[in-house]
């Protein structure tokens, strides 16, 4: 990578971080792809988690978030079930997203998992979605 390309990459990261800083809250809608978040969401997160800008590190190696905390609402659509007693696959999205956002100081996460989209009828999914929205604390 040339120094020009490196500077350009940092500019993109900076623009995305400024968007996050300006927001009162974040709303993320994502599918579950192959047990975790899709690569495009991972790529966005990789631009937001920048050492020395959105996170620092203590002498003992702990990360310190540098962003002001704000609500983060995460809707996860999945073909199967990944939370609760009926889960048939591991839940990687939830702990990953919690850890990733926590290290920049965003700890007020609210998950709305809309599960079993491959099995349920649209009416049932709509009902489940309304249940998730009703159970979520909004500002
Ligand atoms: C490439 C790919 C990988 C997927 N991996 C999973 C998975 O690991 N677990 C799961 O429950 N559903 C998986 N699905 C199903 C999607 O999560 C499901 O279709 C979801 O409703 C996608 O959201 P959307 O309909 O808004 O695109 C996958 C779908 C695709 C296309």
Structure description:
The chain has 139 residues and is of the alpha/beta class. The protein has a single domain, classed as Rossmann fold (3-Layer(aba) Sandwich), CATH 3.40.50. Helix content is 38%, strand content 17%. It is built from 4 helices and 5 strands; from the N terminus they run αβαβββαβα. The chain has a 3-stranded parallel sheet, with helices on both faces. Strands 2-3 form a two-stranded antiparallel sheet. Strand 2 and strand 3 form a beta hairpin. It is elongated, with a radius of gyration of 17 Å. It starts with a helix and ends in a 5-residue tail after the last helix. Bound molecules: flavin mononucleotide. The site of flavin mononucleotide (FMN) has 11 residues, from loops. Flavin mononucleotide binds next to loops.
Number of helices: 4
Helices and strands: which structural class? alpha/beta
CATH superfamily: Flavodoxin domain
| Cα-to-Cα separation, first versus last residue | 43 Å
Main pleated sheet: 3 strands, parallel
Q: CATH fold name, please? A: Rossmann fold
Tell me the overall shape: elongated
The stretches of 5 or more residues where confidence is low (pLDDT under 50) are none
Tell me the helix content: 25-40%
Query: How many structural units, i.e. domains?
Result: 1
């Amino acid at each position: 990578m040339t120094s020009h390309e490196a500077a350009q990459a940092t500019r993109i990261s900076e623009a995305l971080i400024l968007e996050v800083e300006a927001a009162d809250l974040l709303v993320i809608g994502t599918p579950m792809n192959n047990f975790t978040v899709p690569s495009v969401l991972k790529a966005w997160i990789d631009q937001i988690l920048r050492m020395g800008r959105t996170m620092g590190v203590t002498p003992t190696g702990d990360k310190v978030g540098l962003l002001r905390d704000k609500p983060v609402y995460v809707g996860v659509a999945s073909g199967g079930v990944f939370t609760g007693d009926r889960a048939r696959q591991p839940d990687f999205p939830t702990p990953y997203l919690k850890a990733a956002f926590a290290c920049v100081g965003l700890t007020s996460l609210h998950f709305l998992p809309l599960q079993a989209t491959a099995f349920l009828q649209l009416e049932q999914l709509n009902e489940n979605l309304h249940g998730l929205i009703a159970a979520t604390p909004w500002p």
